[in-house]
Amino acid sequence: MIVAAGPLVLAAAACVSFAFRKRLTLVGPFSLLAIAIAFVLVGLTAPDSTGSLLDLELRLGALGRLAALVMLATLFVLVLYVVAEEPAYNFFPTALAVGATALGVVTLTAALAICGVLVLGLLVPVGSFTFQVQRNRSVEAATRHFAFVALGGCMGIAALALAASLPKDQPATTFVLLAVILVIAFALLLAAIPFHTHAALLAGEVPTAALGLYFGVLVPATFVAFAEILTLSGLLPEIAQVVKVQDLLHGIGLVSALGGAFLASGAPDLRRLVVYSVISNLGASLVGIGTLSGPGIIGALAGVLVTGACATQQLLAAGTLERRAGAERPSAAHAPLAALAFVIGGFGMIGAPPLVGFPGRFFIELIAYQFSPTTGTVLVLATLLLLVGQLRAVILLFGTTPTTWKAEPRPVAGVIGAVIFAALLAGGLQPEGFLEPIASFADEFLKAMRPL
User: Minimal CA–CA distance to 123: which of 143, 137, 138?
Assistant: First the structure.
């Protein structure tokens, strides 16, 4: 039962916080406490612990435990930021519900159940977006987001249901078609190019804390769910035998990696730079999964988890810079600590050493070169374009030297950025604890691909 304790705590807390959501002095600390309790419960749960809930089998594997801890830590800093910097009563129940569904995704063992809970989690923030009508045009953003998630979710659930119900003596092409539909479904859910238009709209119209909730927690949860569903669905042997499915994964991944990097290199504002960088890194991770190799899988999952943390760091810093600047252009003169947090978050986003994001990017690009020199070259080019985009942000923020440097009165984004950077640096200096759980899952993935 301890495996289900974390999701149950957050789900119950979400219901309670919704009832008291307008009492900000109570609901904020209550949400932080609930997330901290869930974090401790997950941390105390031994890897590969099992349980059941509502006749659903649960298992917290090594990857699931790692992903849960990373996502809960990200969720904690997001709620802390909203409490201290940007009060929004509707954010707290939304964040807790997202945390509950994210934990459900990493503990469930049935592919259909994982997909269903994931879709629910992706749709939860829609309500939070639409509450901001007076501040932005978020109704359109919420509508597009709902449409893309609903379409991808329906395709994914249908493909998994058919794969589970069809007799195994079906022609191989039938399962290949289901695998193709599943890949396209998750490309929609991950906002991979060319299915990224709703993400671009969200970047401009949604508060940065809500963007952090989506790109910092839900997107990594979606990618982890994709890897787990591939492992559990029984479609991996067919995917491994048919080159065209791998080509589809590589095609979507390369287009997203290079296209997202191009968009990031010319992004008109800080928000879009972060969002397009996330899309580019997701594309590179799809290429890593598409190699169907141990290093590729390890690099893909490690890169996605680090990308979520860095995206949160940069989005919160961007939000602070925007508010401090008002009608002016954001710059370090208005909030130097937030600007510094944005810049050092960019190091993690591009996988710079010695941060923990470097091993994942190195594994992906190394195996991509072994798979195809063209594929490897495209991924390196995407990294260089992301570097250009991050350098443009540095020039934007620090291009003019103010007469006096004055730190912001409440450096919440700066402190959060320093904490995340310290965690990434510590992970880079001692990467074994971060990479070993992912390597354990990679072994499961490869065994499912080549069953005895």
Answer: 143
CA 259-223-285 angle, 5° bins: 45
Three-state SS at 400: coil
The domain segmentation of the chain, as residue ranges, is: 2-449
Angle between helices 111-123 and 172-189 (to 10 degrees): 20
Smallest Cα–Cα separation from 449: which of 153, 184, 256, 245? Answer: 245
Quick one: tokens of 435? 């990479």
DSSP string, 287-323: HHHHTTSHHHHHHHHHHHHHHHHHHHHHHHHHHHHHH
- Residue 15's nearest CA partner among 83, 84, 100 is 100
Q: How far apart are the first and last CA of the chain?
A: 32
E runs forming strands in 72-119:
none
Query: pLDDT digit string (tens) for 135-177?
Result: 545 677 778 888 899 999 999 999 888 888 877 777 767 778 8
**DSSP of 29-69:** HHHHHHHHHHHHHHHHSPTTEEEEETTEEEEE-HHHHHHHH
DSSP 11-39: HHHHHHHHHTTT-HHHHHHHHHHHHHHHH
Report the predicted TM-score, pTM, of the whole model to 2 decimal places.
Answer: 0.94
Q: What is the pLDDT of residue 133?
A: 43
Phi-psi category of residue 292: left, alpha or beta, with phi > 0 → left and psi -120 to 50 → alpha: left
Do strands 56-60 and 49-53 pair parallel, antiparallel, or not at all (unpaired)?
A: antiparallel
Please report the DSSP string for 244-280 in residue order.
Answer: HHHHHHHHHHHHHHHHHHHHHHT-SSHHHHHHHHHHH
* C-alpha–C-alpha distance, residues 169 and 155, integer Å: 23
Q: How many residues does the chain have?
A: 452
What residue has token string 């070169």? 369
